[in-house]
Description:
Blueprint: H1 3-25, H2 32-57, H3 62-76, H4 79-112, H5 119-147
Amino acid sequence: MKKNNLMLGILYAILGSVFLIIAISHNDNKLSGVLWGLTGAMAGMGFAMIYKYIYWTRPKNKERYAEMLENERIDMHDELKEKLRDKSGRYAYVIALVVIALSMMVFSILSSLEIIKEGKLIVLYLGGLLVFLYVVGIIIYKRLLDKY
């Protein structure tokens, strides 16, 4: 396993500790929930990465780790799996576009019925996101088409 993974894990653990100190010192702040969430996310991910590095670099696990890397390499270059990953990404993209469009309608209706107050802002944001995703999808498609 690369030392880079260990360094990244240590960095995440340090960032988690920093967020912990900030969260403890600003516990009465409106953002304290976000700070506690960042503490758990960073520290948890950091300690998990450190554990994985220590586990896979043990001499008794080196053979299993090499086998796992070989299987991952084979899976990443399998043509059928590549096509399935591409197709699943396309489906996820189309589903996201539909969900955003439906969400815009729902928030527009809720805003018209005055159930929510800032519905127009949400609809504008979702509309911008919809346009952004569509344009980025076209740009990526054209670049890939030019590349291949």
